[in-house]
Description:
It is built from five helices and seven strands, in the order H-E-H-E-E-H-E-H-E-H-E-E. By secondary structure, the protein is α/β, with parallel strands linked by helices. Helix 1 (about 10-20) runs parallel beside helix 2 and helix 4 packs parallel to helix 5. The model has no long low-confidence stretch (mean pLDDT about 85).
Amino acid sequence: EAKKKGYASRAAFKLSELDDKFNFLKNGLRIVDLGAAPGGWTKVAVERTKPAKNDKGIVIALDIKEMEPIGGATIIRHDFLDEHAPDILKQALGGHADVILSDMASPASGHAATDHLRIMVLCEAALLFAYEVLAPNGTFIAKVLQGGTENELLNLIKRSFKTVRHSKPPSSRASSSEMYVVATGYKG
């Protein structure tokens, strides 16, 4: 289905479903997509915010893996955990972001507890970056895995955002422990 609709992966449906439910992708917004490869979320962000048709909007995608170009998006190949990544993104952004998206994940080890901790580290790194660049009332969306430590991170997020919810898009596999934290109304 993803290939038929021109998306690089099934993950595009997850972002579409999250946006249909929470309505955070609007025309003219400034979006940063972390862990963007192969580009499904980036393409959805471009389609829904239309950066090429207005002066304010921008979609910046970053991943350690190479990505095919996506019209309307700036693609940066870099490791987000590298100390220079935030500055590279800030320079490309040229100001505040309205939405930070993170679908980052490390390669699965097959050990559930280890995989959970790795994803939570990536989510926390994305959150720290969001604190630096999000505009007031901004939105932070990130993948988390159920496994025990997500409650600590959730409490941290709740201090900085007006509304924080967990959501499992219908296109996520039922057997997956993957969920998304949707934090809106960044307090700055």
